[in-house]
Amino acid sequence: MDTVTAIKNRILLLCEERDMSINRLATVCGLPPSSIKNILYGKSQNPKILTVKMICDGLGITLGEFFSTPEFDALEQEIK
Fold this sequence. Notes:
Elements: H1 3-17, H2 22-29, H3 33-40, H4 49-59, H5 63-67, H6 70-73
């Protein structure tokens, strides 16, 4: 699994846990829905950390909480 897929999966899981739609997430984050959908549908292959931070703020979690999962811990090094 790559980093972008892990980010996508984490966003979807957090929204599911909170019974939150993508459009609602965009509203609480202050982001256009297209920014989040671009990550989820693979158009954005390099999501900005600021975008992820805004998503975390909207979800009421820290960046540390967002990335502190076995899925992220298991990622292989991207630079070979």
